[in-house]
Structure formats: structure tokens, C-alpha cells
Amino acid sequence: MRIFAISDLHIDFKENLTWLHQLSRDCYRGDLLLVGGDVCDDLSLFMEGLKILKSRFREIIFVPGNHDLWVHRNQAKDSIQ
Fold first, then answer.
1. CB atoms within 10 A of CB 34
2. Where is each Calcineurin-like phosphoesterase domain found (predicted)?
3. What's the number of domains the chain is made of?
């Protein structure tokens, strides 16, 4: 098992989300990924990003960053509620 570490994915930027989707589905199957925070600040996008990573790596360890601590739902949905 190899161990990889990454941080500051900021997948709320289109090019970063595209990069994430392009990660190999086979190369990292037996590996662990440490995600050092700042994935994004939108809850649904955050969950999508972690789901993608989980489908690529055997195990994910996540440590929240300052952007992740303030994750919020889509504001359009909140304003209706």
C-alpha cells in the first residue's frame, strides 16, 4: 500500500473538479489518501468530491481545512426555507 497526501483541492473551481474526475480508477485502488483539507465550501460539491476520491482509493483519511469548516448548503435552497 502506498500513502499519498493532498490538500487545497478547491473543487469549486471547474478545472480542479475536472482534474479530480480524471484521476485513474485503477492506479490507486490499493492505496491510502490523506486529504489535508480545503476541498470546497459547498456541501453537495464536497460530498461529490469525497465520493470520487473514495471510488479511486482504498482508504481516505480526511482532515478538515478552513474552507471545509464553513461548508454551507446551496444558498438558493436556504433562502427558500
1. 15
2. 1-71
3. 1
